[in-house]
Design goal:
- There is one protein chain.
- The chain is mainly β and about 120 residues long.
- Helices cover about 0% and strands about 50% of the residues.
Amino acid sequence: QVQLVESGGGLVQAGGSLRLSCAASGSTFNMNSAAWYRQARGKEREFVAAIWWSGGSTLYADSVKDRFTISKDNAKNTVYLQMNGLKPDDTAVYSCATSKGRWLSRRISDYDYWGQGTQVTVSS
């Protein structure tokens, strides 16, 4: 059992920055990777980024590759998403998730636990 709590969302102007945090608790020793997803109004949930817990290998969606950075603090059981150069199209509810799998994945079905999400709104 893993509990995930996101924080750091809010309202920003286009071109601004935010850093999201995802704090994990519970049976985190089975957490091999973590990911960020987002769901915009009226759209399906979309993969954003993933990170391997031990070595730090990462995977990004093409739409955020040059602007967002996923990172982690193993001692704090926390995953971060640094978002720079925000655009109105980035507006969405951002959720974190963890996987017991031994590989990085973009597929929703590969993730076991999910947080409640935090709202990010980018004004134009």
